[in-house]
Amino acid sequence: MESLDKMAPVDERPVVVAGLGPSGAVLALALARADIPVLVLEKDSTVAADLRASTFHPPTLDILAAIDTSLTSTMVQMGLKADRYQYRDRVSDETATFDLSLLAGETQFPFRLQLEQYELTRLIQKLLEKSDCAQILFGHELVGFKECEDHVQILVRTDERDIELAGSFLIGCDGARSKVRKETGLVFEGFTYKEKFLVIGTDFPFEQIFADFSYVNYVSDPEEWCVILRTEKTWRVLFPTPKNGVGDDAFFLSEQFVQERLQHLHKIEGDYSIRYKSLYTVNQRVAQRFYDGRIVLVGDACHINNPLGGMGMNGGIHDAYDLASRLIRVIRGEANYVTEFEKYDLVRRSLASRFVQEHTIANKAVMESTDPDIQKSRQAHLMKTAADPILAKEFMMERSMINSVRETMGKI
Ligand SMILES: Cc1cc2nc3c(=O)[nH]c(=O)nc-3n(C[C@H](O)[C@H](O)[C@H](O)COP(=O)(O)OP(=O)(O)OC[C@H]3O[C@@H](n4cnc5c(N)ncnc54)[C@H](O)[C@@H]3O)c2cc1C
Hints:
With 412 residues, the chain is α/β, with parallel strands linked by helices. It has 12 helices and 21 strands. The strands form 4 sheets. Strands 7-6-15-16-17-14-18-21 form an 8-stranded mixed sheet, with helices on both faces. It has a 6-stranded mixed sheet with strand order 9-3-2-13-20-19. A 4-stranded mixed sheet has the order 1-12-11-10. The structure holds flavin-adenine dinucleotide.
């Protein structure tokens, strides 16, 4: 077995980050910008271009700008600015429109930025590749580790060989099925929804069908709710599959099922042109603890939730920024890692359980209710809130995660 341990003297061992998704990328960039050596292990050979998060909330953009303003400038040029978002009732056609410009003064970015998450990761990859402090190893899968007194010994597998290397700390940014979390034995508490989420990309011009349509729309319907989003590339529609267990994955991904969903949403002559479709299992889970000795978890590795409200990737980026500031203090000798990781666990885990889980579970429950009275009162409440600038601002400060970022990290 080859050893990369020689790569750095003991006191300069890099922070090892497992996983180059949005969380790992942001953490690595924040460390590299503070001249902290960081080594990123990514099991795949490139950044995964799968279609997942597409909404960056205002405080996430504030955080990214605090790390590197060139990053957010490029993102804003590449993405679409959603300056409002809407809750629509398909029966009455009533629409509650939340105007994000009410957040001007609270954030540099009073809009939701619609951009595929992999575009962020690719941009950061380029920045890391130019940095003297960072190294990315693609095709390197973390397969095991052992905590030692002053470092973590890590076992990595490539197609050709196994490698052993040492890091000052190991940060698991390796997603929902995190090997790092599993190896620490920390339980991933929570539940899995019975239904799955079907995501469909289509070129159909929804903006020409629905009046005054925004780039982000939560659509309620007594028979089938959905979310319609515009990314910088295409329209994307998210539907739940039936909860009654009728049908399997192949059926839910069949042309017939996909076309029926879209035709129910809006009837057209002939078929919709489909650019892609995928099916996701949806969980609500939070790890029992976010660290174990010198090993820390970030992002989906320690909390996952349904995508309604767009809090998964955004929350992971907030974790990464919070942890980076702690690691920087620890590595500069200004703080003790045990105390910092305990605080990280306390702050981020309570936020994931209390704020993100509560909001996302409630968002889904409200969207999926088929009771006409509940739907009517929900829509009336949203419209009243959206129409009152004070109430609307309060609602958006919470839902766009500005309050949670301020509560935990202060004003960015
Ligand atoms: C349909 C859908 C829509 C979504 N929409 C939104 C949204 O609008 N807003 C939002 O905030 N969130 C959204 N999310 C959630 C969001 O996609 C995730 O929260 C986000 O990807 C988490 O980022 P991460 O970096 O923590 O993990 P991941 O993105 O899963 O990245 C983990 C990385 O680790 C690598 N890896 C795994 N194991 C190893 C190993 N052993 N060694 C080395 N590398 C490894 C993987 O290859 C991967 O690159 C959505 C999710 C879905 C499914």
